[in-house]
Design brief:
By secondary structure, this protein is mostly helical. The chain has a two-stranded antiparallel sheet with strand order 1-2. The chain has 15 helices and two strands. It comes from Dyella jiangningensis.
């Protein structure tokens, strides 16, 4: 049975490989950073099991490793890797392969969708092929492995070249690769700490009574603001839905929950376009393209975000209370 733990172990193995390669090249700080992260991925289940058993020491060790990651992050300078393939060879390969280059990338969402839709019904000799919890994430991990093999087949390249290229990109991204993990944790912290309840109390005290429009506007702007703060609309959504969406818009004003949720998320995505906290969208492309300003992507898409937000809010106001 394929479980999400296998995906974490696979990520850990790749991170340890990246650490080993950096260590061989004399990049001590970079090697230590990826080594610690790989160990955290590999031992996460053990830490949780020991914590449930009443042994806090592994969790404390993991916490110390996280602090060490934060101390090492500023030391990660851009490391220029020696190109194994010349620019002329890359261009010739791209022209030869053409649209075939998109096949491995398209396999990732396709396989993930198939697993999410039918994974619960797949079995071998009466045993379920996929564990039910976090089946979509398990499918995503499987899709990435399949895409790696597909890319090697399409490009007629050795499999280890894909690992080397992945390592090169990870070193180029650096500590920003951790931001999605940190932001997801931040959203959970906000939710568990009662930020949603505090927002609900503040909204009830400030918003004019009986004004559905004002309530909807605060919800939409709140999705943008919290996404800017957290860098992730998925982290902002439970906070705003718990604070304003569910108790006020849905229960008090009768808003359609499906429309509110879908268009509220789109408002949050407008915030994603405006924040460096969404590093995987805004900072990583700037680093990979070696733009002069790390915020060039954000500047380029600012007015697009504003116009999309205005159009989304107008449509939401027209549809959500029907």
């Amino acid at each position: 049975m394929l479980r999400i733990e296998y995906a974490y172990w696979l990520i850990a193995a790749f991170l340890l490989y990246v650490a080993w390669r950096n260590l061989r090249e004399g990049q001590g700080s970079r090697a230590a950073f990826w080594l610690l992260l790989g160990l955290l991925f590999a031992g996460g289940d053990g830490v949780l099991a020991q914590q449930k058993a009443g042994n806090p020491l592994p969790a404390q060790i993991a916490g110390a490793m996280v602090i060490a990651l934060a101390l090492l992050a500023p030391r990660l300078r851009r490391h220029a890797h020696v190109d194994t393939v010349s620019a002329e060879q890359r261009l010739a390969s791209a022209l030869r392969l053409g649209h075939k280059l998109f096949m491995p990338a398209l396999l990732i969402p396709l396989v993930t969708l198939i697993v999410a839709l039918v994974g619960a019904h797949l079995s071998v000799a009466g045993h379920a092929l996929f564990a039910t919890p976090q089946m979509t994430l398990t499918g995503l991990a499987l899709a990435c492995v399949i895409a790696l093999f597909a890319a090697a087949y399409v490009a007629r390249a050795p499999l280890h070249q894909g690992l080397s290229e992945g390592r090169r990109l990870l070193d180029a991204i650096g500590w920003a690769a951790l931001l999605p993990l940190l932001l997801a944790a931040l959203g959970e912290v906000f939710t568990q700490s009662g930020v949603g309840a505090a927002i609900a109390a503040l909204a009830n005290a400030i918003l004019p009574e009986g004004s559905a429009f004002a309530c909807l506007l605060v919800f939409a702007l709140g999705m943008v603001l919290f996404t800017v703060i957290m860098g992730n609309a998925f982290a902002a959504f439970p906070v705003m839905m718990a604070g304003i969406g569910l108790p006020l818009l849905i229960q008090q004003y009768g808003a359609h929950p499906t429309i509110l949720g879908a268009m509220g998320m789109l408002c949050g995505y407008c915030g994603t376009l405006l924040t460096p906290m969404a590093a995987d969208y805004n900072l990583v492309p700037a680093a990979l393209l070696e733009l002069r300003s790390p915020y060039g992507v954000i500047r380029a898409q600012f007015w697009s975000a504003v116009m999309i937000f205005v159009a989304t809010f107008i449509m939401m106001w027209l549809l959500v209370f029907r």
